[in-house]
Design a protein that fits this description.
Layout (H helix, E strand, L loop, with lengths): L12 H4 L10 H9 L3 H10 L2 H13 L3 H7 L7 H4 L7 H17 L10 H19 L16 H11 L6 H12 L1 H17 L6 H14 L8 H13 L4 H4 L2 H27 L15 H13 L5 H25 L7 H10 L9 H19 L14 E5 L11 E4 L9 E5 L9 H11 L4 H9 L7 H4 L3 H17 L6 H25 L5 H12 L3 H13 L6 H20 L5 H9 L6 H15 L1
Parallel strand pairs: 1-3
Antiparallel strand pairs: 2-3
Helix pairs in contact: 2-7, 7-8, 11-15, 12-15, 13-15, 17-24, 18-25, 19-20, 20-23, 20-24, 23-27, 24-25, 25-26, 27-29
Length: 619
């Protein structure tokens, strides 16, 4: 069977509808009709295709309405240019069509007898079926997400895409970049319309999300067009790469500035003005329990993020018990270092304020933080022998989060390398405050985002052979974040936390993830206020106030995702313990890690089965 050439099948409807425009009264019928392509012709194709051809067609059909994804998928081919000058334009019709398409694809899977499949084909079938079922089961909640929020929305994600991911290989790519700038008004207008559609359904973002998006949108266009990051970042890339001709560089700054002034500034003003109009009715900063059928929505979205059937009540209790366990470990280390008075959180806050653990609050200090991260990553990459059969398949770089995104961006995040190897993986560190990067926390963050965390996991997945392409690019939070948190502890086992303060940093990071279980379920299920969530996280972890506020507001606009880290880690630890007990002296940690990583991401309930099958074979 031929390998498919796919983009990921997006696992959660939460973000499938994030770029969607209100429709006329018959929008649903219209979208359904559009999704029902020539059935007779399709039936001929369907009946003749192999399983891998089916996977290829599913991915192709899903990405056809996503020009940005299409351009990436077709990189280096003749058809790439059809999409390079286009942006994704949100619409309600598109969201409805995606749901109809998922139902059709799930029905078509019935042509293949699951019980006749084996090996990776069976696993691919199970993974796709799980994803489609999860999406279809959430049909009642397709308008329950927040396309506009302070963290991951068009106003900050689109500039990030343009400045970091739009290709810049030649003069033609500059022309495509300008074409995309000209489409900003349409993309932002679509965003306004899909938000308005949700408002009609009684779904509004938290008030703080609107306020911060308004603030950041107006700030993005506050200066001269020539100073906008969409101008300066592209020019800097062009100068670094040398891929743009001298002739094209002449006058390019003025050309870019004109496009920003004519298109980008108009788009951002449109969005900010509309969001301003919502402030009189957006009075709540509460969790999703306030939404129509919000409790059922939270249970569905929690299953999607954790890929388990754990209830919010079970997750909340797990968080409380893990907080207690981890605090006891931290208390023992703190007392051994002479810090015995007060709560663990208070003592960690005091440590975080000690000058010996902080970098200088300056440009030089921030560059020193980045260099420290680079040294940590390089060191552990040389120490993987004995723990892994294979290392990452691409290089990784450490970069600063763009300054225009710092205020509301995550504390750190990872950007995977493209499949064509045209750039490395990137570990982005948010340097808005040096207080968020104490020396005792550097190692754990680097291990999580880079090696042996996200970078190792994702590049191993990208290197998989003899599987459909969607398996090499799938994103499931419980697997990815569970592995990255597991990797933090693994680095300690490998001997990279010899300093007790570094180990405290590791435990503080794990405590932080346990607290996430408590506050996410607390705010969305137990109806805690935003302020109660902030107070609890700050008191328990001792994290800086700016970091805590950003985290709590993250959970309020991306409900359930925070639960995936600790749940995923603990399930993987349980799998390893099961294997160690069953195999005894025959257990090889390298083999276990190969099973977890080299089969790619999958729901935890499927990963449990894969591990058990491996144990049985190894016996």
């Amino acid at each position: 069977m031929p390998n498919a050439k796919l983009l990921p099948i997006v696992s959660l409807l939460l973000f499938l509808s994030a770029c969607s425009a209100p429709a006329p009264e018959s929008a649903e019928e219209s979208a359904l009709a559009e999704s029902q392509v020539d059935e007779a012709a399709l039936e001929v194709v369907v009946e003749a295709e192999s399983l891998h051809e089916f996977f290829e067609r599913v991915a192709r059909e899903r990405r056809e309405s996503n020009p940005q994804a299409m351009a990436s998928a077709l990189a280096g081919t003749e058809r790439e240019s059809e999409y390079l000058g286009r942006l994704n334009i949100p619409s309600v019709e598109q969201t409805l069509a995606e749901l109809a398409m998922a139902r059709r694809h799930r029905e078509e899977m019935g042509r293949f007898d699951r019980f006749e499949l084996s090996g990776q084909d069976a696993l691919s079938w199970d993974i796709m079926a799980w994803q489609l079922d999860q999406q279809i089961n959430g049909a009642d909640f397709i308008w329950h997400d927040f396309p506009v929020n302070q963290l991951m929305a068009i106003h900050n994600m689109l500039p990030g895409f343009m400045t970091a991911q739009h290709p810049l290989r030649n003069d033609r790519d500059v022309d495509f970049y300008l074409q995309r700038l000209a489409q900003f008004p349409a993309a932002f207008q679509g965003t306004v319309e899909v938000v308005a559609h949700r408002v009609e359904q009684g779904v509004l973002p938290p008030r703080f999300a609107l306020e911060k998006t308004i603030r950041d949108s107006r700030a993005f266009i506050a200066g001269e067009p020539s100073d906008n990051p969409l101008v300066t970042e592209l020019l800097a890339r062009a100068e670094r790469s040398g891929t743009v001709s001298d002739e094209r560089m002449e006058g390019l700054e003025a050309e870019l500035a004109a496009a920003v002034g004519e298109h980008v500034m108009v788009a951002y003003k449109l969005l900010a003005d509309y969001l301003e109009s919502l402030l009189p009715v957006a009075e709540s900063n509460d969790g999703v329990w306030r939404l129509p059928d919000g409790e059922a929505f939270y249970r569905w979205v929690t299953r999607g993020h954790t890929t388990t059937d754990m209830s919010p009540e079970e997750i909340h209790e797990l968080g409380l018990s893990e907080v207690e366990r981890i605090e006891a470990e931290m208390d023992e280390i703190l007392c051994s270092e002479g810090y015995c008075e007060g709560t663990v959180g208070a003592r960690m806050a005091a440590l975080n304020a000690e000058e010996r653990f902080l970098f200088e609050d300056s440009d030089a200090g921030r560059e020193a933080i980045l260099e420290a991260y680079r040294e940590i990553v390089a060191e552990i990459e040389q120490g993987l022998d004995g723990w892994f059969h294979d290392g990452p398949t691409a290089p990784v770089e450490v970069r600063r989060v763009p300054i225009y995104r710092e205020a509301t961006a995550f504390g750190a995040y990872y950007m995977r390398p493209p499949s064509d190897g045209s750039r490395p993986g990137i570990f982005f560190a948010n340097l808005r405050s040096v207080d968020e990067h104490p020396r005792f926390g550097l190692r754990t963050l680097a291990y999580h985002e880079a090696i042996p965390g996200h970078h190792l996991q994702i590049t191993r997945m990208q290197a998989m052979e003899n599987v459909p392409e969607f398996r090499r690019s799938i994103s499931l939070h419980a697997h990815a974040e569970g592995w990255a948190l597991y990797a933090e502890r693994l680095a300690w086992e490998m001997g990279f936390h010899e300093d007790p303060y570094d180990n405290l940093g590791r435990l503080q990071a794990e405590l932080f993830r346990a607290v996430r279980l408590v506050v996410d379920t607390g705010m969305h299920h137990h109806r805690w206020s935003r302020e109660r969530g902030i107070d609890y996280m700050r008191d328990v972890t001792g994290m800086p106030a700016t970091d805590v506020e950003a985290e709590i507001e993250r959970y309020l606009v991306i409900p359930g995702q925070a639960n995936s880290f600790k749940v995923g880690m603990m399930r993987m630890q349980a799998m390893r313990e099961r294997a160690e007990q069953a195999l005894g002296d025959g257990f090889d940690i390298r083999d276990f890690h190969r099973v977890i990583l080299d089969n790619g991401a999958m729901p935890l309930e499927l990963l449990d089965q894969v591990v058990d099958e491996w144990i049985a074979e190894a016996r």
